[in-house]
Design a protein that fits this description.
Protein name: V-type proton ATPase proteolipid subunit
Keywords: Ion transport, Membrane, Transmembrane, Transmembrane helix, Transport
Helix content: over 70%
Family: Belongs to the V-ATPase proteolipid subunit family.
Order of helices and strands: HHH
Organism: Cyclophora tenuis
InterPro entries: F/V-ATP_Csub_sf
C-alpha cells in the first residue's frame, strides 16, 4: 500500500518536469508564473496527502495488529480457563477474528484513498496552463 503512494509522487514529478520549459532565444520566457505556482501547488497537494495517507496507514495497521493480538490472547485465556476446571469447556469461536480482519483491511484501504484523492487533484492542477502575461 505504501509503495503506491511513492509512485503517485513519482508520476506527478514526471508530469511537472515535462511541463517546465527553458526560455527560447528571442521569444522570452514561456514558463509563466501561474504555471510555476500551479506546479508547486500540485507537488505539495500530492506530497502532503500521501504523507497523511502513509501516517494513517501506519496507525491503522498498528491498531489492527494490536486488536488481533488482544483477540488471540483473549481466546487463549478462555480456552485455558476451560481446561483448568474453572469454567465451561466450550470451544472458542474464531468467527469474530475474520470480522476484525475485514474491518482492518477496509480501514487500510480508506486511508490509502486519501493519497489517491490528492494525486487526482494534482493531475487536475497540472493540466491547466496559462500563457498570458509572462
Amino acid at each position: 500500500m505504501a509503495g503506491v503512494l511513492g509512485i503517485y509522487g513519482l508520476i506527478v514529478a514526471i508530469i511537472i518536469s515535462g511541463g517546465v520549459s527553458a526560455p527560447l532565444a528571442g521569444v522570452g520566457n514561456t514558463y509563466s508564473q501561474y504555471t510555476g505556482w500551479a506546479h508547486l501547488a500540485a507537488g505539495l497537494c500530492c506530497g502532503l496527502t500521501c504523507l497523511a495517507a502513509g501516517g494513517a496507514t501506519g496507525i491503522a495497521g498498528e491498531v489492527g495488529i494490536i486488536a488481533s493480538g488482544l483477540r488471540a490472547e483473549l481466546n487463549h485465556a478462555k480456552s485455558n480457563r476451560g481446561m483448568m476446571g474453572g469454567g465451561s469447556s466450550e470451544i472458542v469461536d474464531e468467527g469474530d477474528a475474520g470480522k476484525l480482519y475485514i474491518g482492518s483491511v477496509t480501514i487500510l484501504s480508506f486511508s490509502g484513498a486519501i493519497g489517491l484523492y490528492g494525486f487526482i487533484v494534482a493531475l487536475i492542477i497540472t493540466s491547466s496552463d496559462y500563457y498570458g502575461c509572462v
